[in-house]
Design brief:
Elements (H helix, E strand, L loop, with lengths): L1 H26 L6 E5 L3 H5 L8 E6 L12 E5 L14 E5 L8 H14 L2 E7 L5 E2 L4 E2 L6 H11 L1 H6 L3 H10 L5 H7 L4 E7 L3 E9 L4
Parallel strand pairs: 1-2, 1-4, 2-3, 4-5
Antiparallel strand pairs: 5-9, 6-7, 8-9
Helix pairs in contact: 4-6
């Protein structure tokens, strides 16, 4: 399992770098645009020198550390299922690995509708349920098991369980709040979008990206 964890981390870093390049290429964010990142952090955008000068709103359900550059970043507390912004308030909305944490499919639909409402252009990414490696627990196949079975085995069969040593309440919370999407479900949430499938080892779907209003 440790070997799987190391290999997955290595592949994950390569995917993130490739995804960042694809985001810049397809969405072509421009200096001066007003951007919304639902569930994001300053660190991601600090690496995007191409959009220096943009105003970026970071929305999270809890408090996050104040940014070093308040002129560029604004931190807002809010919920992705009911964004506190008017229609088309942003040029571009972005969300990375968040929609799987907002609740069951009905809640995920609300999240998708809100992203669509506040920005004409957006990029939403989520891990694929079909991937044999569950990225939150770093475990093989466990997310394909019934929730009650997951609760019993996660402490012993996942890297997360070995390292974090979660309590029964922690495990229950993670299982209850994490709902990975299949490709069919994700496309149903974003029917007006192009959906890109990233693959692990060129075989298994690793994640899905919904794009609307791309520059290319």
């Amino acid at each position: 399992m440790i070997l799987i964890h190391s290999l997955y981390a290595l592949v994950g870093n390569r995917f993130r770098a490739r995804r960042l390049h694809l985001f810049q290429e397809r969405m072509a964010p421009r200096a001066g645009e007003l951007l919304l990142d639902v569930g994001g952090a300053v660190g991601f955008w600090s690496n995007l020198e191409a959009i220096d000068g943009s105003r970026i709103v970071l929305l999270n359900v809890g408090e996050i550390e104040p940014p070093d550059d308040p002129a560029r970043f604004l931190c807002v507390c809010g919920n992705g299922r009911g964004l506190p912004f008017g229609d088309s308030s942003f040029s571009l909305a972005f969300s990375n690995s968040v929609i799987e944490h907002v609740g069951v499919f009905q809640s995920q639909q609300q999240f998708a509708d809100e992203i669509r409402r506040v920005a004409p252009r957006f990029w939403v990414q989520t891990p694929a349920r079909e991937c044999p490696v569950e990225p939150h627990y770093l475990a093989l196949f466990v997310h394909w098991l019934p929730a009650n079975v997951q609760r019993r085995v996660l402490r012993w069969v996942s890297v997360w369980g070995w390292v974090a040593r979660p309590s029964a309440d922690d495990i229950d919370s993670m299982v209850r709040e994490t709902h990975l999407l299949t490709g069919k479900q994700f496309r149903a949430l974003f029917p007006d979008c192009e959906v890109i499938t990233e693959r692990l080892f060129g075989i298994f779907p690793k994640s899905y990206i919904a794009i609307r209003g791309s520059a290319s």
